Amino acid sequence: MNKNGNIKHGYHGSLTYRRWKAMRQRTSISSRDAHHAKHYDGVTCCERWASFEVFLSDMGECPEKHTLDRFPNANGNYEPGNCRWATMAEQNANRSSCILITHDGVTKTATEWARTLGLNPSTVIERLRRGWSHEQSLADPCRTSRGKSYPTETLSFQGTTKLLINWAKEIGMTPNALRMRLRLGWSVERALTQPKKTSTR
């Protein structure tokens, strides 16, 4: 025990101690920065792990190239039963952005679907966290600061789903012309594959 009455555990400066200290900073309202305040809002560390010695006893030493990962609940708190030492690859697979969504019979991560449909990935993930259904999270348009909607109409053809505006660009047609074909009752296949009529003089 040192002159301040604290137990000298001999781990100060070690990788395990640094991981524990970083966890405490992320979950401490008084010490976390703006980034941590945004991404760890509502996340807490259990009282048991206020002690490094107890944390060390529960988790063991941190292996090289590993960090502290909340698992199996990536949005849960830092506590026994919901933490592990994980590699960066394992952490990436456990992130919220890796939530799987099945849409039109195709399964992708929320981030992949957002990019496919021209949506902001963080917006889709936040919608899912708020309890929106998969379909609603992907179908509802994102709003710009001026209140206008981004077009999010999608078409699926031969196993591929794209924005209507992207299909139109690919086949050399205006979005309105493609939309009109569909409104006239054309199948998606016919609307995308039938050549445009060329004007003759």
Could you explain the architecture of this structure?
The protein contains 10 helices and 6 strands, in the order αααββαββαααββααα. By secondary structure, it is an alpha+beta fold. It has 3 domains: 15-93, no CATH class; 99-146, no CATH class; 153-196, no CATH class. The strands form 3 sheets. Strands 1-2 form a two-stranded antiparallel sheet. Strands 3-4 form a two-stranded antiparallel sheet. A hairpin with a 2-residue loop joins strand 5 and strand 6. It is elongated, with a radius of gyration of 25 Å. The termini are far apart.
- Content-based structural category: alpha+beta
- Rg on CA atoms, Å: 25 Å
State the distance separating the first and last CA atoms.
97 Å
Number of helices: 10
Order of helices and strands: HHHEEHEEHHHEEHHH
Query: Tally of extended strands?
Result: 6
| Uncertain stretches of 5 or more adjacent residues | 1-6, 144-151
Helicity level? 25-40%
Instruction: Please tell me what the overall shape is.
Output: elongated
| Main sheet: strands, sense, barrel | 2 strands, antiparallel
Average pLDDT works out at: 78
